[in-house]
Design goal:
Blueprint: H1 5-25, H2 34-53, H3 65-74, H4 82-98, H5 104-126, H6 142-156, H7 160-180, H8 202-205, H9 215-241, H10 246-255, E1 258-261, E2 267-270, H11 281-299
Antiparallel strand pairs: 1-2
Helix pairs in contact: 1-2, 1-5, 2-4, 2-5, 6-7, 6-11, 7-11, 10-11
Length: 309
Amino acid sequence: MPLDQTTVTRLAFIKYLYQTGVSQSHAPSPLSCASLLTMHDAVELFLQLSSEHLNAGTGHPGFMDYWDILNPRLAPKELEQKESMRRLNKARVALKHHGTFPSDLDIESFRASTTNFFQDNTPLVFGVALDDISLIEFVNPESSRQKLKDAQGQIQSGDTLAALDNIALAFIEMIADYEDRKRNQYHMSPFYFGQSMTFLSSFHMGFKTGSLSSPERKLGDFIDKVKESIEAMQSAIKMLALGIDYRKYSRFKMLTPHLTRVMSGEWIINRRFKEDQKPPQEDARFCIDFVIESALALAEFDYSVNDRR
């Protein structure tokens, strides 16, 4: 049966929790032990949602009881990874209730078994692959979310250039929405790091005249270099202030088109690739994942300023 929006959203959250656990598992010991709790929570939420989706069971079953509850609904197939999840559950109890840390090898094993659990059981219960569950539902605003969905379709059809256009627009709209909701009554943003330099180039100031060695031309070149430096610093400081991973952002910038906003408010898209140089789908998916990750980072501390008198 087709999945309703609530189920899709809950699956997306479960996938996010699972991916968070995987990320935690790569941390040095004993910090990596936190991944055990996160991965267990993700599996338990999945089992709970599965029982609701299949209308199986009542009350509050224990973790390992779900296999007996769900398997009759899945017959002749059965829920996979029962014994590996039993081991995960025992390790979680030992850590949470007795303070027993799992070894690095145990963490690696739990990461693999949890991955197998979701890859095996997501299509079995919900009819969709784990990779097809999108965290795009957590991206705001709606315009950014829709552009990312459009980009996903374009990636599947092989039009990665058009997909990167939409991804770049989705990101800049997302940042603008987050910033705009925090402006004070004077419309000042807490992420303001100097005036826009868009129309302060040597061309707009009339210095791109004369020979290459003329004083006017040299002054124009100096103005452009200063403008580029200030814009780069403004961009970097804003990303860092917003809590966005700048190293990933640097790759995102190299792949997505450069956007220039004209006075009418429209965006001019300057692609970094030619029509015959389409980037691979993996690069476009990285860009979508980066926007989603950035949206989640913004959501960790979000607020709106309502008083704009």
